[in-house]
Amino acid sequence: MVAFLASAEADYITGQNYIIDGGRWLGPKT
């Protein structure tokens, strides 16, 4: 997942939250 998010293919993804192992969120805190 990290490799995908760091790649150019993920350039169009904005403002999304992703569930990472352990239930932590990668994204802005609300």
Automatic annotation (TrEMBL):
Name the domain of life: Bacteria
- What protein name applies here? SDR family oxidoreductase
